[in-house]
Design goal:
52% helix; alpha+beta; 410 residues
Length: 410
């Protein structure tokens, strides 16, 4: 960590304390979507631009008058800066509210800058960085989750070749209820292989409808069913080339999985911190909880798991900083998959210890145990999206075996 990481942390924390903390609980409990004004504040403060990691969008943001928090130079910005940004917000301990501030935006907007045309980056990219418009990633379907290649949403060209007609369903789309653009995986071919998959930028309009899905956490993050019926999309909204969609999705997955781990560990730290404070003040049988050996054992278990996860996260993040192309590429796919797998498995244990110590407060959405209750719910959520634990564990071992010496024996 360098001095710039500290100045960025201070700037982000000041924004969180001023703009987010006062409304986090009420918005989360009421299930209210973030207002346009708040999204624009996130954009104006540079919190959207830095949520995508290092990249050309940082200099583009500066050209739009958007600063990097802490006045960090775009050329000095790295994944540790991004990690700090996410965890400062994650420590609000309100997972639905936290995800409403850019969870869907953060895994869809990068596609505009990586795969969109120059015109798309200039027009749509600037709208997204300012928070004037919002985007979501539309991949999962009722019939296709981790098995991305099995998606059924289709895009067929019109006879004049100027448009795609998109038909299909997308499900569990984070921030879908208030998004203006959907980075959408569609089937443009009929070979029955991943080469059929393409990516389109679909703008909300005639034929596109969204319906709220109620999941484990607050509805304020706008998790949606996206229904597309004869949605007319200009061919210029094709991202890259036809048939490249599966590779583009895989390109994006590493960073998304790392981001999920970052957020979960940030929420874990908030939960463990509140649990420690509760154990120091709560009295039972004439003693504070922390004076009880069994409680100290649970606290030690939670803290040891949390610090182990933090060490693994920092190791992988350092690797991302030093590897050409950052999170992208086959070499980091397995380490990041294992990071997310270990984070969700260990967080389940941390949540269990925290809830047991906090008792009824650990299962109450309001009051002193709210961050523990929110973290407990988010753990299983994080274990499913971005690739399930089983899929990621299997993938990591398979990829490791590719480089394993065939002649190696005991």
């Amino acid at each position: 960590y360098r001095a710039s990481h500290k100045t960025l942390a201070q700037a982000v924390r000041a924004f969180v304390q001023t703009e987010l903390e006062p409304i986090a609980e009420s918005a989360d409990l009421a299930g209210e979507y973030p207002e346009l004004e708040l999204r624009q504040k996130l954009g104006a403060a540079g919190l959207l631009a830095i949520g995508m990691g290092p990249g050309p969008q940082l200099k583009f943001a500066k050209s739009l008058g958007i600063p990097i928090p802490g006045n960090v130079d775009p050329d000095d910005f790295d994944y540790f800066h991004e990690m700090i940004r996410h965890q400062e917000i994650a420590r609000l301990g309100r997972p639905g509210f936290v995800d409403s501030l850019g969870a869907g935006w953060g895994i869809s907007a990068p596609a505009v800058f990586h795969f969109g045309s120059d015109e798309m980056r200039m027009k749509v990219g600037s709208q997204l960085l300012k928070g004037d418009k919002w985007s979501a990633l539309a991949i999962s379907e009722p019939f296709a989750g981790s098995d991305v290649a099995a998606l059924r949403c289709t895009a067929e060209k019109t006879p004049d070749g100027k448009f795609y007609m998109v038909n299909g369903l997308k499900k569990w789309i984070t921030e879908g209820m208030y998004s203006d653009y959907f980075v959408t995986a569609v089937r443009t071919g009929k070979t029955g292989t991943p080469k059929d998959v393409s990516m389109l930028l679909v703008e909300r309009g005639p034929g596109l409808d969204t319906k709220q899905i109620k999941t484990t956490y607050s509805t304020c993050c706008g998790t949606a069913m996206v229904i597309m019926k004869d949605v007319k999309v200009p061919v210029e909204n094709l991202m890259g080339k036809e048939g490249r969609g599966f590779l583009q999705i895989m390109y994006n997955f590493n960073h998304e999985r790392w981001l999920i781990a970052v957020n979960l560990i940030g929420q874990a730290r908030a939960a463990v911190s509140d649990t420690f404070m509760w154990a120091r003040q709560r009295k039972i049988f004439g003693k504070t909880l922390i004076e009880q050996p069994v409680i100290r054992n649970k606290l030690a278990s939670a803290a040891a798991s949390l610090e182990s996860l933090t060490a693994l996260l920092e190791t992988v993040t350092y690797d991302m900083c030093k590897t050409k192309g950052g999170a992208v590429g086959d070499r980091l796919a397995a380490p990041i998959a294992l990071l997310k797998y270990q984070t969700t498995r260990s967080s389940w244990k941390i949540a269990d210890e925290c809830v047991q110590i906090c008792g009824g407060r650990g299962i109450t959405r309001t009051g002193m145990g709210a961050k523990v209750e929110g973290f407990k719910n988010y753990v299983k959520y994080a274990a499913v999206y971005g690739g399930s634990e089983e899929i990621l564990a299997d993938m990591a071992v398979k990829m490791s075996m590719k480089a394993f010496p065939k002649q190696a024996k005991l």
